[in-house]
Amino acid sequence: MKNRWLILILLTVLVQWSCHLPQTTRDTVNFTVLQMNDVYEISPLEGGKSAGLARVATILKELEAENPNTISLLSGDFLSPSLMGMLEDKDGEKIAGRQMVETLNALGLDYVTFGNHEFDLKSGELLQKRIDQSDFLYVCSNAFRKYENGDTEPFTQKGNPVPPYVVETFKSASGKEVRVGITGVVLPFNRQPYVHYTSFEENLASVGKEMASQTDVILAITHLNIDQDIDMAKKNQDYLVFFGGHDHVNMRHQIGNTLITKADANAKTIYIHRFSYNPKTGKTSVRSELKKIDDTIADEPETRKVVKEWEGSVEDIIEEMGYKPDEEILVAKTALVCTEYQIRGEPTNFGIITAKSFEKAIPGADAYVLNSGSMRLDDNLQGIITEYDILRVYPYGGPVSRVHMNGTDLAKVLEIGMVTNKGEGGYFQTWKVDKSAGGKWMVSGKEIEPSKKYSVIMPQFLASGKESNLEMLGDMPRDEFEKFEINGVEVINDVRDIVIAYMKELKVFE
Ligand SMILES: [Zn+2]
Predict the structure, then answer these.
(1) Ligand 1 centroid to 245 CA: how many Å?
(2) pLDDT, tens only, 266-318
(3) How far is the CA of 249 from the centre of ligand 1 (A)?
(4) Which end of the chain is more exposed for a tag (fewer CB within 10 A), N or C?
(5) Residue 49: which CATH number?
(6) Residues 142, 222: one domain?
């Protein structure tokens, strides 16, 4: 009699206890998402201390061992830009992101959406080729291939149209299922003739509705800027998570029901999302963790093999281009600042050195400016700087030009480059440009006079009107140069050669 009471009490306690632990029921469907965004480098950075895709592959393997219901995704921006991608392989074909595709294939990536930089690729054919070489699936609802006759069609991957969304199904230990809808969107930033965008605002809403009608939880891979992400999250509260990109620095915003996360660029960090779906309530919860990728994490051997092969062939190519990758050109006692959020938002010593080096090539101009987007390292450089580092900083290279304009236009250009474009690649790093106490733009120490003629040195890319909001520059008269003499040495008109020549003269940066 006594025993029976005891068993009853024990059973009651057990039932109550298990009710408070929804995570442990055999019906709960747990799944994990590894998120990266804006990854341009396959190798570790900061002298090997940080990042590295072979290390990310190790984490992915660990997550798969913890829960086979694991997928990995990259929220856009990976095919360009990078030094490796700008080079040509032995057959004379531009590498243009092939190193990323092969490394991400080895890593076992599942999904990407397009970032604006995917459309850096010269032609629709080349982008199409990279998509077909990818073993991971492209998902995007609002970017389409545009043909010369004006026809628009989805990009295809191995013969199938790139879908606006996919549905993943995961199972619990007891066989219960969760259906997960995942869409992708990209901001209409890069206006290539071979790309047609439809509205990401409308598509997130309409595709969201369509996914919700056939799935249990909906997610989006969003290559948008954070203001657009927040706005979209407010208007589309059905989404549980936006796996964001484009911003390069890690952030996390909870907007009502919708979580927005972005990791640091180049996989210096990644996001790990652990989802739990309760089939009884139909509710999904998520725990998200930002994880640092550093030298405490071992390389996954298969991915490492691919990375090492690329590193080896790139060194050969650089030498063929006439650069000496290991040549030491400067000792930086202070860090040269080139992290993206700084270089695109404030004057940095590295930006100023670059603009100053232009003066060495073409002295006597009124001002020297460059679009910060031409500096792509997204990192700082300290200690011994080699020619290889300089090639990494300016993967696009390209010549500088002298542009002629009147004072009214110059003030307008500076206002756009220094204020309107803040935070973007079109933000200016400058030399001989200031603001007076009264808030007026000054060049070479004097307030700009509206009708006076000025000459400004800038990258040809900028001078030909290719930067956001600065199309007007393309209509102004300009002089082009083939080469210069710096310190008695002939220097080719390429920003990399100019900076290398100037740094060699500096020797030490205090
Ligand atoms: Zn982007």
Answers:
(1) 7
(2) 999 999 999 999 999 999 999 999 999 999 999 999 999 999 999 988 888 88
(3) 12
(4) N
(5) 3.60.21.10
(6) yes
